[in-house]
Amino acid sequence: MTLTTDPNRMAARRYIRRLLPAMLGFLACSLGFGALRDTAVLGGPLGYALALVPVALLLFAFWAFLRFLGAVDEFIRSVHSKGAWFGLVAVLAVATAWGFFEQHLAAPDLPLFWLNPLFWLCYALATAILSRRAGLAI
Amino acid sequence: MRNRVGELRAERGWSQGRLGQELGVSRQSVNAIETGKYDPSLPLAFKIARAFDVPLEELFFLDEEG
Predict the structure, then answer these.
(1) Residue A73: is its pLDDT beyond 60?
(2) Residue B33 touches partner A, C-beta closer than 8 Å
(3) Does pLDDT of A3 surpass 60?
(4) What pLDDT, on the 0 to 100 scale, is given for residue A122?
(5) Cα distance between residue A123 and residue A37, in whole Å
(6) Are B17 and A51 in contact (CB under 8 A)?
(7) Contact predicate A75/A18, CB 8 Å
(8) pLDDT band at residue A4 under the 50/70/90 scheme
(9) Nearest-CA distance from A104 to chain B in Å?
(10) What separation in angstroms does the CA of B57 have from each of B24, B33, B41?
(11) Beta-carbon separation of A74 and B26 below 8 A
């Protein structure tokens, strides 16, 4: 194992260590809910309580992201902040467009929980492109 | 905004990594500043000026200043 004292690398490692379990937990919850669909477990208040578990994991992931932004230097922070901004724009654009499609064109319902992975995907893509353009190693 | 960070660093024979270490930022950040891809915040600009022991206005220029 390589030891590093670079604050940016250390912050990135801490961030991954926090983000990965949260995202795996989120995925497990999504799969678990799929398996439990149409069962009595998800029928009552317990179902609503269980649905808050992935939300807690999501909030934890955003907290980890905020900590990461606070720990890296200002240039890295600007790259990741711009990436997050692109992710937010993508989510708002897709949600708004699909809302109009559903409202006026009878498009099929889009499960809203997909907006979360969409955000992270667009954030990652935008950050990768911005990092490449800025000469940062990805 | 343009700057003389790369020029002053080369004069002193410092690597980007060494300057970054002195400033508490990454080598990539120093590179981005030198190549004009990123304009540093005012506190970081002051740190850079202090590292080179030059006034801020001798380090950073607005483009229209020529």
Answers:
(1) yes
(2) yes
(3) no
(4) 96
(5) 30
(6) no
(7) no
(8) low
(9) 44
(10) 22, 16, 14
(11) no
Tell me the residue type at A130: L
CB contact under 8 A, A137 and B28: yes
Strand B60-61, strand B2-3: pairing = antiparallel
The answer to whether the Cβ–Cβ distance between B28 and A7 falls below 8 Å is: no
Cβ-contact A22, A67 below 8 angstroms: no
Sign of the Cα pseudo-torsion (A43, A49, A50, A51, in order): positive
Tokens of A102: 């559903």
3-state helix, strand, coil in chain B (%, to 5): 60, 5, 30
Token output for A105: 């064109």
CA B57 to chain centre: 12
Cβ–Cβ contact B41 with A under 8 A? yes
CB spacing of B28 vs A76 below 8 angstroms? yes
Residue position matching structure tokens 């260590």 = A17
With CA atoms as reference, report the closest residue to B38 among A78, A86, A80: A78
B3 touches chain A (CB under 8 A): no
* Cβ atoms < 10 Å from Cβ of A106: 7
pTM for the full model?
0.82
Taking the Cβ of residue B31 and every Cβ of chain A, the question of whether any pair is shorter than 8 Å is answered with yes
Strands (E), B1-66: 2-3, 60-61
Q: Which residues of B touch A129 (CB under 8 A)?
A: none
